[in-house]
Amino acid sequence: MENIKIDIRQAVRFLPEGALKAIAGEVKVAHESLEDGTCQGNDYLGWLHLPSETPDALIAEIKATAQTLRERCDCIVVAGIGGSYLGSRAVIEALKNNFEELTPRILYAGNNISEDYLFELTEYLKDKRFGIINISKSGTTTETALAFRLLREQCEAQMGKEEARKVIVAITDAHKGAARTTAEKEGYASYVIPDNVGGRFSVLTPVGLLPIACAGFDIDALMQGARDMEAICQKPFAENPAEQYAAVRNLLYREGKKIEILANFQPKFHYMSEWWKQLYGESEGKNHKGIFPASVDLTTDLHSMGQYIQDGERSLFETVISVDKPEHSLLFPGDKENLDGLNFLEGKHIDEVNKNAELGTRVAHVDGGVPNLRITVPCLEAYYLGQLIYFFEIACGISGNVLGVNPFNQPGVEDYKKNMFALLNKPGYEAAGEALRARLAEED
């Protein structure tokens, strides 16, 4: 069985001689502090050995619940925000056909507060049998709680309370919170978000596994891939892709490369990039430190962001995710008139054109002063996505420790919420609301 691989050579060339060897010991200590639980945020390390420690019985139960929802629903709405939905969506979008809807269709809510989005969603669901997977540790996250209240009311009105109980699932805290209380009161099937697993690291818990199983994809293979990568990431530095990735990105940061662009040449990886951005942005953006994570879909964005990457300020580096083997075969046709001048491609696989576009881009960017890492994924299968997810997760934990921040908290996320609650006159925020409105009036 192949594994995902990392090539750091076109990044190391931008580093001082001996820098990689020098940081290897620092990276080892950072990794060991995860394993022995001595790092900052050590009460949130439950994700570290999820692949090898998740019971088979839990996987079987998730698959059974998913089958119930698949049999009873035309659509399943995943209500969650951030890590509560991005991980599962990344896997689902990577594995599904670009143009065929899944049966049942997987929809998403609770990740924004757009009135138009929610109105159009509820209108679409009016003649559908739909279920809800409500993912919230507290049950009070504004975006998700708002969407769930609307959807639950509609589900009960359309299907009746008894049937609704069979198609609403709560993934929440084991003992406390609004979502747990509602689930127990109404008799919903429920799963636990472990206390020691933060949302952005939760894709290999029921948070991610249930929606993926509802979409019809193989969560056994996903977990096996993660399990195998867990073992690979215990190897020495020279054979450890996660340690190498954490080392190189921190060295580049120290050399003034403050932005990392995750690039893919496979449109199905768009949401994997969105999940990656949250994972690294929320984990490392602390204490006025951290690499800013951005992403591009190539070759599409070469016609928009390509100019900046090639020729803009040299404050960035690039990590390219490359899929080795396509799922399908399609040859480029010939044309007698050859008005577009593309007959030189006749008989070639489209993927050969894409791979050469990728190679040409990487060479151009390196020549333009952009350090380049390459992660190769053998093919788009659940097994390799499991490997990729675990690789990024453990590399993130190591990298955050090297950076000297707590990779597992997110104190800055609370600031917007306090202001929003104050402006909306949430009970207990009245004084803050008055002060904020007075300040805003002065600024006007």
The CATH architecture of the largest domain can be named as 3-Layer(aba) Sandwich
Q: Are there runs of 5+ residues with pLDDT below 50, and where?
A: none
CATH topology of the largest domain: Rossmann fold
* Helical amount: 40-55%
DSSP summary: helix tally: 18
- In the CATH scheme, the class of the largest domain would be Alpha Beta
Number of domains as seen in the coordinates:
2
The class by helix and strand makeup works out as alpha/beta
**Average pLDDT rating:** 96
Shape: globular
* CATH 4th-level superfamily of the largest domain: Glucose-6-phosphate isomerase like protein, domain 1
Query: Strand content of the residues, in percent?
Result: 5-15%
What is the topology, as strand order, of the major beta sheet? 1-10-9-7-8
Q: Kindly, what is the distance between the CA atoms of the first and last residues, rounded to a whole number of angstroms?
A: 63 Å
Let me know the number of strands: 10
Cα-based radius of gyration, to the nearest Å:
23 Å
Helix and strand element order: EHHHHEHEHEHHEHEHHHEHEHEHEHHH
Describe the 3D structure:
This protein is α/β, with parallel strands linked by helices and 444 residues long. It folds into 2 domains: 218 residues, Rossmann fold (3-Layer(aba) Sandwich); 170 residues, 3-Layer(aba) Sandwich (Rossmann fold), CATH 3.40.50.10490. It is 49% helix and 13% strand. The protein contains 18 helices and 10 strands. The strands form 2 sheets. It has a 5-stranded mixed sheet with strand order 1-10-9-7-8, with helices on both faces. It has a 5-stranded parallel sheet with strand order 3-2-4-5-6, sandwiched between helices. Helix 5 runs antiparallel to helix 13. The chain is globular. The termini are far apart. The model has no long low-confidence stretch (mean pLDDT 96).
